[in-house]
Amino acid sequence: MEKSGNYPKRYRYTEKETDRIIEILEIIEEYRKTNEVDEIIDCINNELLYSAGEINFVTRCKRQTCPLCRENKKFKSFLKLKKKINEQNGIRYILITFNGREISDLSKLSKEVGENNEIVAKIIRKRSIQAIMLGYIKIVEISYNKYTGKLLPHIHLLLGVREDFKKHWIRKKEIEKLEKTWKKWKGEEIKNAIDVKIVKDTENDIDTVLKYITIVGKKRIMKLDDMEIRAFFEMINDRKRLFTASGIFK
Q: Nearest Cα to 163, choosing from 95, 238, 226, 88?
């Protein structure tokens, strides 16, 4: 564990959020080894003591399974990607979301995520994508529908593309081909199978997309449903990569 210095402007957790963190710790204990859980608990306890004003510094365990260190890592990813994008000239961006099957059984989650990853990898290698692509960011995300009680594994793929991509990529035609390919390789009809957005070439719109795919400002651990938290730890246990960067984003 490492002392990280003073944080006078850090976010201070409310009593309600503190209670929620304690509940989350009980979930974490189901998945992690005792020594790892102990480090995470120390990390969170120090954060709570700081929020209560009892100490003037925090420590970080730097475990990717730690809810608080994960929040920090998300923000660092956002800043790193923003710096990379600011270094580019003549680049446009396309955001594609691929939705998998809804599942209610956690034991099927790893297989579904693996299948989604394999299909997206094949789609990236397609000639129509390779003709315009300069790099990509792939984010595996799992959302929970509290009304159906099911998880939706999906992938956000941000493509960095050539400025003249429209000469080689006819939006409506390519979207139809992508959707047809996704459904074919998934082996079934999937509602709202894909979504494609061409990002406007403005700093504000690019920032908005980066925050969206890095989950900065959303999906904070205290606000997740227990099923979403368990899904995250299932993926960590199975060593699934939730974030991948290639080309101009590396």
A: 88
In tens, the pLDDT along 72-130 reads: 777 788 888 888 888 888 889 999 999 999 998 888 999 999 999 999 999 999 988 99
The answer to whether 236 and 65 are in contact (CB under 8 A) is yes
Q: Provide the residue range defining the domain that includes 162.
A: 90-247
Q: Name the nearest CA neighbour of 66 among 37, 46, 45, 34.
A: 37
Residues 237 and 157 placed together within one structural domain of the fold? yes
Q: What span, in angstroms and rounded, lies between the C-alpha atoms of 115 and 186? A: 8
Same domain membership, residue 98 and residue 34: no
Classify residue 176: in a domain, yes or no: yes
In a domain, 42, yes or no: yes
Count of residues making up the chain: 250
Overall pTM > 0.85:
no
